[in-house]
Amino acid sequence: MGAAVGAAVGAAVGAAADTPGAEGPAEIRVEERDAQGRIVQSGRLVDGVFDGDFITYGESGRPAMRARMRGGAMHGEARHYDEDGNVVQVAEYVNGVLHGTSTFYAQSQLVCRLSYRGGELEGPSVYFATNGTVAAVMQYRAGKREGEAVFYSPHGVVLRREVYAADRLHGPATGFFEGGAVSEKSFFKDGLLEGELLRFFPSGKVMQRGVYHRGVLVEPLRTFSEGGKETGAIQPPKPQGR
What we know:
Layout: H1 3-13, E1 27-33, E2 39-46, E3 49-57, E4 63-70, E5 73-81, E6 87-94, E7 97-106, E8 109-117, E9 120-121, E10 123-128, E11 134-141, E12 144-145, E13 147-152, E14 158-165, E15 168-169, E16 171-176, E17 182-189, E18 192-193, E19 195-200, E20 206-213, E21 216-224, E22 230-234
Antiparallel strand pairs: 1-2, 2-3, 3-4, 4-5, 5-6, 6-7, 7-8, 8-9, 8-10, 10-11, 11-12, 11-13, 13-14, 14-15, 14-16, 16-17, 17-18, 17-19, 19-20, 20-21, 21-22
């Protein structure tokens, strides 16, 4: 989308120049077409760069993207479309970089709403289930997961809470049954299980217990009946010989 391409396109399609004053910027409306004569993109060139409304087109001839440009870069809202004309993404840009909210859709259904700062994920990102309810909320810092992540059932019930640091699980993780009772408790360090892992029956009785160190089972992972009787055990791996 450089000045040379824009000028050549403008001449090729006979685009009409605007009529700025003698001291004003040189403006021209351009359309680029492919070898078959199908429109590929259109917009306004100001002093050789796109500025203002800008549209790209798909093979069907329908808009594939509508955006605002400033100084040759996207600046403001941009809407992306599928071949049927449905919106698949609405994003906010500042000087060509994602900055603000970016919302994604699939077949006109909301998929996720992400927050960007300076081109990287920053702050809360919300993901949606097919029924439109919130499926997960994750926190990001500088493009990496940071802080608590919460996962929900299609009915809006919290199913799991996890903590991340530098894009790795780091801290307590708790699972829940739909009724609200705790189903699992564990702890992670640098993305690996560390310490006691407990799984529960809906009644609150322990169903399974094991101990991990750096993601490796170090004490038997024991399974119990709801009455408390041990019903099985997985033994830790044997140390590897040198």
